[in-house]
Inverse folding.
């Protein structure tokens, strides 16, 4: 069977003006991941990422570790199907309707680093509305549209793959969640309960034969656990 490794990006710059930049911890996570994979001798036939900077930077930091010990470094291909959903656009579109019930939501979102737990609660409420489809907005990618985009990316991989290949996809938590939803048929809300648990640079393994795909492992981050450095285990 073939293997697709879904790899979440390293820690991004939560609370900064530009989230789409790896933090120093995110860079270190990606380097640790790459060293771990290289030590295992796990080479890839193809490597892909979305076109977000945090995804591509995670890939390059990880793959550099292959070259450091003389392993071949595969070319990084870009497919925007594996981009994360646009959280900022979803918040902008759905927050006004939430404010009557959550009058402090705007302040919490503007000061997210000071209100992490409350930010997560408000964000989860917004995502719940997005998943329902009831609040779909013209010009905003819907949950069903997002799932369709991700599914199309997976189908392109399968169409070009043979059953012996190992393929890495450097992507984001929401994209991994959409694939879990598609492959396991779990409800979207349940999939998002898992989303909140996905660790930065975790490995999620899919096995495939032809067009048949199964989930083999979820959210493995032993490469970080082995370092016994808790600050490297992050979720944003």
């Amino acid at each position: 069977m073939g293997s697709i490794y879904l790899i979440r990006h390293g820690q991004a710059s939560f609370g900064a003006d530009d989230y789409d930049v790896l933090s120093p911890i995110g860079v270190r996570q990606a380097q640790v991941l790459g060293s771990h994979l290289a030590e295992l001798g796990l080479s890839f036939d193809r490597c892909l990422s979305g076109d977000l900077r945090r995804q591509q930077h995670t890939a390059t930091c990880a793959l550099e570790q292959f070259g450091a010990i003389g392993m071949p470094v595969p070319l990084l291909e870009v497919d925007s199907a594996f981009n994360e959903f646009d959280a900022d656009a979803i918040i902008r579109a759905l927050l006004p309707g939430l404010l009557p019930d959550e009058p402090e939501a705007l302040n919490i979102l503007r000061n997210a680093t000071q209100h992490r737990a409350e930010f997560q609660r408000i964000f989860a409420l917004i995502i719940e509305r997005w998943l329902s489809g009831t609040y779909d907005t013209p010009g905003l990618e819907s949950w069903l549209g997002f799932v369709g985009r991700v599914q199309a990316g997976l189908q392109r991989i399968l169409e070009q793959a043979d059953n012996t290949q190992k393929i890495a996809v450097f992507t984001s938590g929401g994209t991994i969640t959409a694939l879990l939803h598609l492959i396991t048929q779990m409800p979207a809300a349940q999939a998002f309960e898992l989303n909140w648990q996905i660790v930065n640079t975790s490995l999620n393994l899919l096995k495939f034969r032809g067009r048949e795909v199964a989930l083999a492992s979820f959210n493995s981050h032993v490469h970080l656990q082995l370092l016994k450095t808790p600050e490297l285990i992050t979720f944003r």
In short: The chain has a mean pLDDT of 94. Residues 48 and 133 are 30 Å apart (CA to CA).
